[in-house]
Predict the structure of Large ribosomal subunit protein uL4.
Amino acid sequence: MELSVLNIKGEDTGRKVTLNDAIFGIEPNDHAIYLDVKQHLANKRQGTHKSKERSELSGSTRKLIKQKGGGGARRGDINSPLLVGGARVFGPKPRDYEFKLNKKVKGLARKSALAYKAQANAIVVVEDFAMEAPKTKEFTAITKNLKVADRKLLLVLAERNNFVYLSARNIEKANVITASEINTYAVLNATSLVLTESSVAVIDNLFKA
C-alpha cells in the first residue's frame, strides 16, 4: 500500500512511502485485539477498592434482639449485613488485575489494529518536522492543514520530541506517541492515524524483532 507524503502545510511533497503488507495488509484478528485491549485496560486499574467487613466496623457488639421467637432472621449486633449501615458480605478487596499475554498475540493485535486503519483509509503520512518551542496554536494549524483537526488524532513520531508533545497536550482529541510506544488501544481509539515519514521504517523494524 502506497501513500503520498504530505508536508505540514498539507501539500503533497511528491514522495511516497510503502506500508508493509505484512503489517498493514493482514487479515485483522478480532480476538487478539480483544485480549490486548482487555490487558491494556486491566493494567491501568488501580485495584484499590475496599469495603469494610463485619470485624472492621466500629459499633456495639450487643445482641439487638433475642435469637428465637421474633419471626425474623438471626442478626446479632448492629454490624450485621442485614441492617442498614452494617457490613458488606464478600465485598471487594484490593487486588492486582494484571494478567500475562503472549508476545506474539500482542504483536498480532497491534498489526490487526494498524490493518483496520489502513482498510479505512484513516492513515496520513507527514514528512518529519520539529518545533522550536511548545506552540499549541502551531500544532493546531498543522492538524487543520492535514484535515484531521476535527477527529481523534494519534500522531506517531520516530523518536520523542518534547516540544511536539507539549504542543499537543492541551488539545483534547490529540495524542502523541513514539513508534516504539504504539499499542492496540491507542490505535483503535483514534479516528485518524498520522505517521511521520521516518516512523514508518521504525514500525517495520519493530515488528521484525
Q: What stands out?
A: Residues 15 and 173 are 28 Å apart (CA to CA). The two ends are 22 Å apart (CA to CA). The first strand starts at residue 2 and ends at 6.
